[in-house]
Amino acid sequence: MSTSRTRVARNFINRYGEERLRRLLDALADGESGQAIAEEFDVSRERVRQWKNAFGRVLTMYQVHPEIADVLEHSEPEPV
Description:
mainly alpha; elongated
């Protein structure tokens, strides 16, 4: 049985093609604006939001800059 996500992906491919699905996924992964994607695909921002939710998930991550990690690794405690 086809899941909703699979059905949406197949419908997308039938309408736009596999190459365009790859383009959409790259655009979403690169953080392109919903408005820019909507204009490229001639759809609403709401449709782009729906595709975004159907085809993946957004992960937010905080990554410490390497130079800060280096400071922590090589620092000596200050005398009190």
